[in-house]
Amino acid sequence: MGNGKGKLDKVSGAKKKPKKNIVDDIRLIIPGIPVLPEQCLFTIQGFQEAMGRAPKGDVGIFKRDVTYKSICSALSQVHMLLENAPDKDRDGEDARVDFEQFVNGKLDKIEKAAAEYLERYKKGKKHGAVTNLLQQVDDVRKQLPTWIGLDWPEGLQGKKLDLARKAGITPSQLKGVNIAHCDFLRFNDDTMVGEPKFLGKGNVNEVQLINYEGTDYVFKQEEVSLGKKPDPAGAVGIDVVNDYRGGNRNIACGLVSELLDTTVIPKSRFAVARGKVGLLMDKAPGKTAWAYRFGKKPWDGELSEKALASLQEQLMDLQVCDILTGQPDRHGENYLVNCEGDQVTITGIDCDFAFGKNIEVLGDETPPYKTKPGKINGIGFMPPLIGEKIAREIQDMDYATDLLPQLSDLLSEEELQATQHRLIKLKEHINQLQETGRVVNDWSTWRSDKGQTVTEFLSRGYKEFDDEKITFFRDVQSLFQRDFAKFFV
């Protein structure tokens, strides 16, 4: 008979190694054999041996020490859970997520009790045993998702992963979500003030107003797949069924706007809210442009000269951003207008279909170049005028050192190449605008070669559009012409 630590080999008389030790030896020879969570975590007996066995009769510190008993209790519960873990091939993701959260809750209890224990024991055998246990707990946390078949995205770890788990987020909800732009530590259920408020529902998803730490933001749940190919997404080469990444596209547009030193597209990031992961955008003031399309003006009384110049410049800035980002969906419901005295704010929203791999600028036509493909809900031309400031930013922009580092982790290689192509064509167009005097330094005093003001120049060819044709404007050259010329002609 053996002594519990291994049986005698019938041939040699030597003690056989327990199966666990045999697996450990094989693991040294054949890399890749996984260590299961329960194999890297103290058993109750192993922990007691590491700490020093309690005296008979359960007297002394082990009877008095509630913290020690809390560690042992939680440790025992973790082992019981691990023995009954869900099967990654049989059980659904929700069951495995619930299991992972439950195990991590028990591990939290071990860590809390262990931290209290270490406050009393700064050194010695007990300190070493508890420190070793804490390292084992960390190892279990890291290995558990793989063991039960949960494929958490690479880079989601530590407190950020803990918050996702706590919020009830599942790995499938994070498909296509760029983890580097997940600000879960700042925007989560614990920092939320009150409950989300419904703002509206578009073709893709519901929009909510959420207050985090006293500031209002706009939240849209991230959709992994739209299940269909709506125009204009399909036309510009976005696979909204298998590779949508709508949140990434919005974040990338905000980064481009920031690079161009303009605020016409808000900053975005990913947040968690009530069991959902979604895009969180800075809230913009005002109403949509088409809220005014039946004759009501977005300003009171007469628009001041300064406000008009600001309106025109920002509209052209937005159009430049849309050309560079390949935004095919800038209809009048997808940007906001706010006018308060001389202060005007233009904000582009809903950039879900930007950066399609097919969208590009035709370089074989005379200016103004037209974009393709044909079925898009935005402006079909390069900007007829451009502000001096944003023109300089475009001309100074280098794809490899400015754009690529910001966008490479958000877009596909084909989408990045299309962006580089648009930048080249946009630079060429700006050169031609400079040659014809259409780079504007002062929007209030600029005049065309025919003596036209900015308003007169941009309003050329304006005509009313009936509701049936309001989404397709292949002959419209600017947002101002489409949405505001009616107030001036």
Provide the fold topology:
Blueprint: H1 19-29, H2 44-51, H3 61-64, H4 66-83, H5 93-120, H6 124-147, H7 158-166, E1 192-201, E2 206-212, E3 215-221, H8 246-259, E4 268-273, E5 276-282, E6 287-288, H9 305-325, E7 335-340, E8 343-348, E9 360-361, E10 371-372, E11 386-387, H10 388-396, H11 399-407, H12 413-435, E12 439-440, H13 454-458, H14 479-483
Parallel strand pairs: 11-12
Antiparallel strand pairs: 1-2, 2-3, 3-5, 4-5, 6-7, 7-8, 9-10
Protein name: PI3K/PI4K catalytic domain-containing protein
Task: Using brief descriptors, characterize the structure shown.
489 residues, alpha+beta, de novo design (two linked rop proteins), 2 domains, five-stranded antiparallel beta sheet, three-stranded antiparallel beta sheet, 38% helix, disordered N terminus, PI3K/PI4K catalytic domain-containing protein
Please describe what this structure looks like:
There is one protein chain. The protein is built from 14 helices and twelve strands. The strands form four sheets. A five-stranded antiparallel beta sheet has the order 1-2-3-5-4. The chain has a three-stranded antiparallel beta sheet with strand order 6-7-8, with helices on one face. The N terminus is likely disordered. It starts with 18 loop residues before the first helix and ends in a 6-residue tail after the last helix. A hairpin with a 2-residue loop joins β7 and β8. The protein is of the alpha+beta class and 489 residues long. The protein is elongated and about 95 Å long. It folds into two domains: 132 residues, de novo design (two linked rop proteins), CATH 1.20.1440; 296 residues, no CATH class.
